[in-house]
Amino acid sequence: GRALQSLCPSPCARLSTQGAPGVGRANVFVVWAYATPLASLVAALEQYRDATGVDCFWIEGFSTAPPNGVEAVVTRIKHTVLVLQPWECADEGPLTLHRLDCLKELAYTALSGAHFGVAIEPALLQAFATAEAGGDLDADDLAAALCSVDPMKAAAPSAEEASLAREEIERALGAGIALVSPKQQWPRVGGGQVGTPPTQSVTWTVNRMVAGLLREAIADAATFDDAAAPGARGGGGGGGGADGAALLGRIASLLDA
To answer: For residue 33, what is the enclosing H or E element?
Structure first.
């Protein structure tokens, strides 16, 4: 589990003592799920690097554990990227939105006002675009999946860690985060509500937080992909080409509907 990271030197710490190149002070905090295949994680972050010009990522499990907690890292770096993977079932959304530790890191991001972006493996984005073109998928499915976050059901390594994570999320949400515009009382997709606002206020508020963060980040990623120009700079990038950019644009517009 993530708590074990502090018990031994991180891979980055070991590489740093060896004078290895490519190890330095991070300028992006990565929200990711440990179930993500390493090749997919690298592909997504390489695309984000090319899109934004950032060059050093803080990745839990690889980077040096902070003595005063992850929140301090998120607040110091002021730039967070959410890896939208693994995303195996289109209507279920990426695993990162169903992990309590990831939701906690997103709450820290919103609380700190950090810049936020999204990263997705180019091959996966292209696969989604191809499926949409073939009529097997539409942007509404993907947008709805991104607005179906339930922190009461999200996974954690243990019941104790789940309880602590929810307490942290509630603390962060209660600290005055400007989640989304006042006009949006519940995430909507295509003009219709995604379900009925649940009785648990934290679930309702977490969905508002996620929708607020994702809306602009996905729109930025679509703009970068559409430009497809060397040296272009955006809020992120999917790397799925013109079809991928168009799909991201539709998802962003649905989140804002």
So the answer is: none
pTM of the predicted protein model: 0.81
Percent pLDDT > 70 in the chain is 72
Beta-strand relationship, 188-189 and 192-193: antiparallel
Q: Which of helix, strand or coil describes residue 59?
A: strand
Are the C-beta atoms of 210 and 144 separated by less than 8 Å? no
Rounded to the nearest 10 degrees, what angle do helices 241-255 and 201-227 cross at? 150
Residue 250 amino acid letter:
R
| Mean pLDDT in residue range 200-217 | 83
Taking Cα atoms as reference points, which of 197, 218, 199 lies closest to residue 208?
Answer: 197
Q: Looking at residue 192, what DSSP letter applies? A: E
Q: Residue 175: what pLDDT?
A: 59
How confident is the model over 36-55, as pLDDT tens digits? 999 999 999 999 999 999 98
What CA–CA distance (Å, rounded) separates 39 from 43? 6
